[in-house]
Amino acid sequence: MKSSSPLARIMSVPGMPMTFVLIITVVVFQMLNPVFLDASTLGNYITNGIPIILITLGVAIVIMGGGIDLSVGTVAGLSAGMTMFAFVNGAPLAVGIAVGCGTGLVFGLVNGFLVAYLRINDFIVTLATLNIAAGLLVVLTQVQPLQGVDVPGFPELTKSDVFGIPTSLLIAGAVFLIAQIILAKTVLGRRLYAVGISSQAANVAGVSVPHVRLMSFAASGLLAGLAGVLLASRLGAVQAFLGIGYEFIAIAGAVIGGITLAGGSGNAWAALVGGFFLVTLQQGLRLNNVDPVYFSIVTALAIVFGVVFERQVRRVILRTALQRTSALSDQRATTAAASARSAAAKSSEGNDDEK
Amino acid sequence: MRANDSVSTPAVLEARGITKHFEGVTALDDVELSVGAGEIHALLGGNGAGKSTLISIISGVTKPDRGTIHLNGSPLASSGPFAAMAAGISTIYQELSLVPALSALDNIFLGREITKKTLGLPLTSDRRGMEQKVRDLAADFGITASELGTPVSEFGALKKRAIEIVKALAFNPQVLILDEPTSGLEDAERQVLFGYMRSLRERGVSLVWVTHHLEELFGLADTATVFKDGRRVDTVPVESTSAAELVNLMFGMDSEEFGGGDASRVAHLSTSAGSRVVLRARNLTRGTVVRDVSLDVREGEIVGLAGLAGAGRTEVVRTLMGLDALTSGTVELDGRRLSLRSSTAAYRAGLAMVPEDRKQLGILADLSTAKNVSISRLSTVATAGFWISAKKERALAEKFRTRLGIKTPDVDARIGNLSGGNQQKVIVARCLNTAPKLLIFDEPTQGIDVSAKVDVHTLVRDYAANGGSAILIASEVEELLELSHRVLVLKNGRVVGEVDGIPAAIEAGEFARIKSEVLNLSAAGGAS
Predict the structure, then answer these.
(1) CA distance A208 to chain B (A)
(2) d(CA A207, CA A189)
(3) Chain B contact for A162, CB < 8 A?
(4) For chain B, N or C: smaller number of CB within 10 Å?
(5) What is the mean pLDDT of chain B?
(6) Which of B257, B314, B343, B363 to mutate to test the interface with A (most CBs of A within 10 A)?
(7) Can you give the pLDDT at residue A340?
């Protein structure tokens, strides 16, 4: 609203507080080790991080709709495996990519159908499909080694530049842009937020909650599939346990970015920033010769810090907003009820101050 | 008249000057209550009268803004549910609060287990000690020793009530609060429960009993206190009153709010509705909550649904909206059979609903006012059916803001920040934006201030005057009659009566007659 300061307004957008933390993190790592922002290392770490960040976006979309998707990591791994499997068996470039993305989409649709239409708890459904995808990848690697093929154009997805910008970064950029446009500008995006805020109220307002749920899981699956294709391109070979644990980084990244697990808020930028923060953190530790065994501990601590930071920023914004609205209703208090309401608001502020 | 006059024993429980506001709405206004030893004291009143708030304050769950609770003449030293329980006030809530997987015994002692020392530490619970302590008490309420060891999930509603009573009595409370204890019980079971209540009275326990069923009071309750709009209306000895008198106390006219003249009430409601039937519902049945309900709504007609809490009014409209599944029955809108499969299908067919419980079911709190208006029919603000135009959306909200008098500094502001009355107008705007053939208003003025109430009444009348058809649910009978052409009275899920030609009757000065007709049907109509 008009009277709020520009900074408070910017900071109230999910993802913005974390954007500043990300910038500070990059600056600190650059000061510690000037190699950090060299073109070669930078391009490398961005390319490495992109699959994780696409997965983060997928999970973020499900979370915004009030759900959770644990299967994204292993579905990405299986999608990578399916892409390689297609190539090993002679598929051309487009077919291999379609097989990878299609694998993710099928898992997303199955998750969505079970959650939305059969009303099975999403935690349980995606925990099951997480293990199904992981198991299928193991089976696949035993059928045939998923490596050693040279499909023209495939490695270039992650190993080439367009005007100095990594191709995979361009792909990811386009995906995030499209996702953000769908979230902010379309009927489907609007319904996703409505369901996330309150599936009950959305249902009473005539929103088809199952349809929205199905679409959110489908999007998450498709993004995991795309992430798998890029993983396969970068690695050139797919091992049996690819993707396990990625879901942890993805969910954590979404939450750190400022997408609350309660649902109903967030945007694509928040997922991007949150995911990139964790990727950056690991890269920075690596460049500063920190033993990789400490990565998971540092990552976990960063998650706790990030969530507390987000909440504190939000709380400060909420408090100033509350003071503004009560001042506003003071001016406009024409009925007895209105003045009683502002009195109630004041007394609750008073309580806050006491704490 | 004070409760003390009718009961010879001194007061055990007293509430003095209790006042409580919730977000500007006065839930309780300087309320007094006095309950003697071994007295069954009924609390009566319509929805939102303040009964629930009062018992939640007495049981320490809610903190009053002003006023104190006294036990045996001295104020309760500390607040909170545990302090109240320790002082001797126990509460049995309407929703059962037992843990289904635990045995009856474990439930009774949950959180206050008797322990015995193992290896010098009080680690294990002393099951035998606990069993001995409650065995006789449990037997008094029909629970055998073997049932004490059975998981609660295996018992029916009556047995669960009995376990809750034993749970409360195991710690010798002086006051036991019962919130709608008969809900979910069959008739025969109710009689058993009433027997338990009598034996509690004989033990000297003071009972505070919240109920909506007036016929249950007689021959059981000693005293009844009636609440309305957060105020105590009166306290009367039950043996010297009648159901009709209590009904009048519960729903009696508030002169401030409604003015006096009968004829002026319906200035905007045309006396005759159109003849074309818009909605035709037949034999709607949903389990035991909606039983064989049939209703027609004609063009330009407002059909009111009357009845006490739990009569099945909201349940009927929820089935129409496809929110709850029907067991059997059919619904036609403009001659076309509805699928009743989902709310989405209902809106598409031309139904819309302003739901009860605005905060939970109505508003999408974190979205803006404009986004709350458009959500039920986004195609009105979208290009090519999917691309939302922020400009169109804002223009739509501005149109309704002017038309319905929604007071907000900015249609882009969060709806959660608006007052209740303005939130409700936004929900009405949301429904009107779908251009419904039939609009359902479920308690449209619940929890909103007086001036917003008048505005919402005007909206409903204008809607019908322009040929719109509506179903209206309102617990306040005056409100219902002022806004309805015809009223169906529900009780226990059935239609037990119909009052037609209401605008004409009011114009003829017969408001009081039709009001008492509706009230008597609500409270006592039909076989239960």
Answers:
(1) 6
(2) 12
(3) no
(4) N
(5) 84
(6) B343
(7) 41
Q: pLDDT tens for residues A195-219?
A: 999 999 999 999 999 999 999 999 9
The residues pairing with B96 across neighbouring beta strands, listed in sequence order, are: none
Q: Which pairs from A321-328 meet CB under 8 Å and 24+ separation?
A: A321/A1, A321/A4, A321/B417, A322/A348, A322/A349, A323/A349, A324/A1, A324/A3, A324/A4, A325/B417, A328/B409
In this structure, are strands B175-179 and B89-92 parallel, antiparallel, or unpaired?
parallel
Assign B53 a pLDDT band (cuts: 50, 70, 90): confident
Both tokens assigned to B36: 């003697």
Give the three-class secondary structure for B10: coil
Select the residue from A119, A190, A260, A329 to test the B interface by mutation, using most B Cβ atoms within 10 A.
A190
Residues on chain B touching A343 (C-beta within 8 angstroms) = 24
Question: Structure tokens of B457?
Answer: 């009444």
Contacts of A190 in chain B (CB under 8 A): 371, 374-375, 378, 388
Residue B520's pLDDT is 83
* Total count of residues recorded for chain A: 355
Determine the pLDDT at residue A188: 95
**Smallest Cα distance from A68 to chain B, Å:** 20
- Model confidence at A239, in pLDDT bands (50, 70, 90)? very high
Residues of B in contact with A180 (CB under 8 A): none
Q: How far is CA A11 from CA A5, A14, A15, A27, A64, in A?
A: 10, 7, 8, 20, 19
The pLDDT confidence band at residue A337, using thresholds 50, 70 and 90, is very low
A181 → chain B, closest CA residue:
B387
Residue showing tokens 């008492």: B516
Q: Å from A332 to nearest chain B CA?
A: 10
Tokens in use for A244?
Answer: 């396990």
Residue-wise pLDDT for B82-138, tens only, equals 888 888 898 888 766 788 888 888 888 887 777 777 777 767 778 888 888 888 888
Check if the beta carbon of residue B301 is closer than 8 Å to that of residue B487: no
Gap from A303 CA to chain B (nearest CA, Å): 25
Contact B2, B34 (CB under 8 A): yes
Q: How many Å lie between the alpha carbon of A314 and the closest alpha carbon of chain B? A: 14
Of B180-184, B256-260, B369-373, B447-451, the poorest mean pLDDT is in B256-260
Considering only CB atoms, A206 lies closest to which of B23, B344, B419, namely B344
- Check CB contact under 8 Å for A337 and B387: no
Q: Is A150 exposed, middle or buried (0-12, 13-18, 19+ CB in 10 A)?
A: exposed
- The 10 Å Cβ neighbour count of residue B78 is 10
The set of residues, in sequence order, having a beta carbon less than 8 Å from that of B126 and lying 6+ positions away, is: B113, B114, B115, B116
Considering only residues 309 to 338 of chain A, which have any Cβ-Cβ distance to chain B shorter than 8 Å?
A: 321, 325, 328-329, 332, 335-338
DSSP B178: E
Q: Which residue of B has its CA nearest to A193?
A: B367
Which whole-number Å values give the CA distances from B371 to B153, B348, B424, in the listed order?
44, 19, 14
Q: DSSP letter at A144?
A: S
Residue of A nearest to B368 (CA): A194
Quick check: helix, strand or coil at residue A256?
A: helix
pLDDT value at residue B269 = 62
Q: For residues B329 and B318, give the distance between their C-alpha atoms in angstroms, rounded to a whole number.
A: 14
Element holding B133 (H helix, E strand): helix B127-140
Q: B442 contacts in A (CB within 8 Å)?
A: none
**Spatial CA neighbour of A122 closest among A4, A20, A216:** A216
Indicate the residue type of B428: V
For B214-228, write each residue's pLDDT tens digit: 778 888 999 999 998
pLDDT tens-digit map of A67-121: 999 999 999 999 999 999 999 999 999 999 999 999 999 999 999 999 999 999 9
